Amino acid sequence: QEHRIPSKFSMMMPAFKGVDAVAAVEGLCNPRGFVLIDKHQRSPKYHNIFSAGVCVAIPPSKRPRCPRARPRPAT
């Protein structure tokens, strides 16, 4: 099935996964391999490990960052 979406720019990104060597450390990462951190960017289990950037497990946002369009009734 083919879908056409009118837009000026479209981008698809595959789901990311953490590095296997880091994900193998017990209690350091979430199931997808991203490092769990506290509000100071520090691992809750290993206090000498700090993480920043794309390796960090970020909780999902509570609401979308951009407004969503409502469906319009067919005319």
Automatic annotation (TrEMBL):
| Database matches in Gene3D superfamilies | 3.50.50.100
Name assigned to this protein: Sulfide-quinone reductase
Task: Tell me which species this is from.
Answer: mine drainage metagenome
